[in-house]
């Protein structure tokens, strides 16, 4: 579960998904990731999962990341999880 001492708020551009999250007891609202209505430097952390790769251009993807950076305080943390089926699979060696 979520730490009860932590305040969370979620957002999605899809009203149907927001409605489902609300019925499950989450504080969530419909927002566009390119124009979040939050003050700058207000969050300790932000999580963005399976969103950025849906944006149509590199400029829009960078704008979404900049918006996340804007709302997270200096020294805060961000987790951004993306994927793209068109990318080539590359072997990564972590013990070099």
Keywords summarizing the entry:
two-stranded parallel sheet, two-stranded parallel ribbon, about 100 residues, alpha/beta
What does this entry show, briefly?
By secondary structure, the chain is α/β, with parallel strands linked by helices. Helix content is 24%, strand content 24%.
Description:
The chain is α/β, with parallel strands linked by helices. Strand 3 (43-49), helix 2 (58-71) and strand 4 (72-81) form a beta-alpha-beta unit. The mean pLDDT is 87. It has 2 helices and 4 strands; from the N terminus they run βαββαβ. The protein has helices at residues 15-23, 58-71; strands spanning 10-12, 28-30, 43-49, 72-81. The protein starts with 9 loop residues before the first strand and ends in a 15-residue tail after the last strand. The strands form 2 sheets. It has a two-stranded parallel sheet. The longest helix has 14 residues, at 58-71.
Strand content: 15-25%
Order of helix and strand elements from N to C terminus: EHEEHE
Provide mean pLDDT, rounded.
Answer: 87
What's the gyration radius in Å?
Answer: 15 Å
| Straight-line distance between termini | 37 Å
- Sheet with the most strands? 2 strands, parallel
Q: How are strands sequenced across the largest beta sheet?
A: 1-2
Per DSSP E runs of 2 or more residues, the count of β-strands stands at 4
* Class by SSE composition: alpha/beta
List strands and helices in order, with pairings.
Elements: E1 10-12, H1 15-23, E2 28-30, E3 43-49, H2 58-71, E4 72-81
Parallel strand pairs: 1-2, 3-4
